[in-house]
Amino acid sequence: MYLNNIFTSPEMQQEYLDIFISSLWPLIQGALIYTIPLALITFVIGLILAVLTALARLSGIKPLQWIARFYVSILRGTPLLVQLFIIFFGLPTIGITIDSFTAAIIGFSLSVGAYGSEIIRAALLSIPKGQWEAGFSISMTYTQALRRIILPQATRVSIPPLSNSFISLVKDTSLASTIIVAEMFRKAQEIAAQNYEFLLVYSEAALIYWVICMILSFAQGRIERKLDRYIAK
Fold first, then answer.
1. Among the ranges 104-118, 122-136, 219-233, which has the highest mean pLDDT value?
2. Nearest to residue 175, comparing CAs of 220, 116, 111?
3. I want to staple 107 with a disulfide (CB 3.0 to 4.6 A). Which of 5, 32, 61, 84 is the partner?
4. Span 2-232: which CATH code?
5. Domain locations along the chain
6. Is the pTM of this model over 0.85?
């Protein structure tokens, strides 16, 4: 009966259309001001952490390997939501207070670094040892061979899975709503709390997430095709 009223009553249709239109811009603002910047910032920081962690895992220095393994193990072995709660709600109990957006950056960056390090480590291991030997044979140091020979090849290998990780990260930023970051899903919660149209508003937020991810997937496909053409040459 409820669905019947929605689809048959012109008044209900108009009311739902008005709510949809009035909610659209606040949700888009949340995406532009918080969701997308949060994803971009944390991905860049997380990528730096991932490279450093992967290199530490592959180094011959035992203490670095242990630290890197512990970091990856604890971040991959605990839920991201719990990590965010520890950073935002837990740290103030020991005198460390962090604002919600910074806490979200820290939490997401650490998570991206842990998961991304495994992608980058696998990419580095996929490069034949002969590439290292070729660099050493022309008097390159370890750092020079890594920078000039290994990392460029590993980058091409790691771009597809890292692109998938970024798309997942965009969706995961919705968890920041739990620590009061005013990103898109938080805006959806606030709007739905006012008009009680949870299905409509949450579906609208889901639609915007889907559009963003479709755009990112299209960009990923373009990048991969360009890399394929480059490799083919």
1. 104-118
2. 111
3. 84
4. 1.10.3720.10
5. 2-232
6. yes
CB atoms within 10 A of CB 89: 12
**Are 156 and 231 in contact, with CB atoms under 8 Å apart?**
yes
pLDDT, tens only, 59-89? 888 999 999 999 999 999 999 999 999 999 9
Local structure of residue 92 (DSSP, 8 states): G
- The H-or-E segment that residue 36 falls in is helix 36-58
Neighbour tally for 15: CB within 10 Å: 15
